[in-house]
Amino acid sequence: MAKLSQEELLEQFENLTLIELAEFVKAFEEKFDVTAAAAVAAAPVGVAAVAEAAEEQDEFDVILTGAGEKKIQVIKVVRELTSLGLKEAKDLVDGAPKPVLEKVAKEAAEKAAESLKGAGASVEVK
User: Fold this and answer.
1) Contacts 24+ apart (CB under 8 A), 73-76
2) pTM of the entire structure?
3) Using one digit for the tens of pLDDT, what is the confidence trace for 47-80?
4) Burial environment of residue 114 by CB neighbours within 10 A (0 to 12, 13 to 18, 19 or more)
5) How far is it, in rounded angstroms, from Cα 22 to Cα 34?
């Protein structure tokens, strides 16, 4: 097996996805009985920021994907959640998929999603 230079190794790592790279680091740690704490600190800022953002998401969007059969009930729930007027709430429901709430806490997003699902709507929380 030919020995790869540091530059060739970096080119190979550049083509990996973040998940593949994380799996490689874990396998490397297990095989050589080391921790990659120093390597993580040397990782590009963009990769570290993406990993951190994925782990610590604290703002969620509640997106109405469909009104279902009980459209009037869904409109009522949308009005309660957003304090929109009747016309604006109806337009939002008719224009699904649309965000109902944006950048809310996880608990508020889950509660809103439950209320909308209870009214017969289909909902996504992102």
Assistant:
1) 73/119, 73/120, 74/116, 74/119, 74/120, 74/121, 76/119
2) 0.53
3) 555 555 555 677 888 888 888 888 899 899 989 8
4) exposed
5) 15
How far apart CA 10 and CA 42 sit, in angstroms, is 13
Q: For tokens 């279902």, what's the residue? A: 68
Handedness of CA 70, 74, 75, 76 (dihedral sign): positive
**Paired tokens of 111:** 């509660």
Tokens of 114: 């439950």
| Spacing of C-alpha 41 from chain mean position | 24
Cis peptide before 44 (omega within 30 of 0): no
How confident is the model over 26-41, as pLDDT tens digits?
888 888 888 766 544 4
What's the rounded Cα separation, in Å, for the pair 117 and 125? 12
Six token digits for residue 38: 């120093």
φ, ψ for residue 101, nearest 5 deg = -130, 140
Beta-ladder partners of 99 = 63
Residue 81, number of CB atoms within 10 A of its CB: 18
**Residues comprising the chain, all counted:** 126
